[in-house]
Amino acid sequence: MDRGLEKWAGHQLRLNHHWADSEEFRHWNMRVRETLLPDVSASPTLKLVFVFNSRLHSAALLMGAAFHEASVSDFELPRHQRSSVHRVKTRRNWYSHIVDDCLARSREVRQALLHRWTPTPRAEQLAIDAFVLLTELTPARTELLRLCQYDRPRAFSELAKHIDLAADQFQLSADLLAEVEGGTSAIELSDDQRFLNISTALLDRSGGGVSLTEGAKMLGTTRQALHKRVKLGSAFGLMHGSEIVLPKFQFITVDNDTRLLEGLAKVTKLFDDSGAGRWSMLQFLIDTDPNLADTPQRILAGGRVDEVVTAAKAYLGMDEA
Q1: Which of 129, 151, 174, 296 has its CA 20 to 30 A from that of 68?
Q2: Each residue of 116-154: pLDDT tens digit?
Q3: How far from 24 is each of 48, 125, 176, CA to CA, in Å?
């Protein structure tokens, strides 16, 4: 992998309204360009599937060999065959059985990563080879490789979570590409609409959001005062369509008194100054961070602001300067 992609991977997944495409599309476009089968098909969707599946299948072979080498008897990766019973019947596109196989394989590989076992030196090397292959499926590659150097079990556990996210992103990308190719949509989604769809899903995953008016009512303040706090960064607000929305998780109630999560201003400043944007900040806050072994949101709620600031700098690549 070239140094440019390594640098980009170190910044992890970003959502920025100024980018022409959502970041998972950009990531997968890079992966597609690196495939060893560039002429296999004129279909970008099929190439994307091959890239995703090749990493998963190769990693599964390596993990299977590692378990065999270590005489692991309580876990076995299934042979790579699928029954039509498990197909998703609602999928409309020609590639459905291939995508379903990829997603099923990703779940199996994830379980292998989470399995507790005692490797021999050779088995551990095979497993790490699988780990390195799988990190190419996530923009968190740099942090995961760094973590694996001193804590292999924890790194494998963190990678399993990222494989889930990568599988979700892969399915979304493949579905949208196939929809465009197959002409199942009368009008292709605009960049703005695509960003809105992705940011809505991210906001929902964080626990939802409230408007400025609703947030001000919860805090017992005015809409104007809360708007000022959003601009200054002491309240976490994002532009969602034409409205400002505030993620719900930042509203903390103690003894019937609602206030905002402490430490947000320091994190917001880092993301604003870096140009990564606040949607990228939301992604950072709600996903488990390898350096924290938990979500930054929960670490902030525990009052460990400095640790989250340090993790944010690593996420943004500021610790590389």
Answers
A1: 151
A2: 889 999 999 999 999 999 988 877 788 889 989 989 888
A3: 12, 30, 12
Give the pTM: 0.47
Rounded distance between C-alpha atoms, residue 285 and residue 248, angstroms: 13
Residue 168 identity: D
Please tell me the distance from the alpha carbon of residue 319 to that of residue 263, in angstroms, as a whole number.
Answer: 19
**How many distinct helices (H) and strands (E) make up the chain?**
14, 5
Query: What's the rounded Cα separation, in Å, for the pair 59 and 55?
Result: 6
Cα-based distances in Å from 246 to 18, 49, 225, 263: 20, 36, 14, 16
Task: Give which of 287, 263, 267, 274 is closest to 316, Cα–Cα.
Answer: 274
Question: Alpha-carbon Rg of the chain, whole angstroms?
Answer: 21
Regarding beta strands 238-240 and 257-260, do their DSSP bridges make them parallel or antiparallel, or are they unpaired?
Answer: unpaired
Average pLDDT of the chain, as a whole number? 76
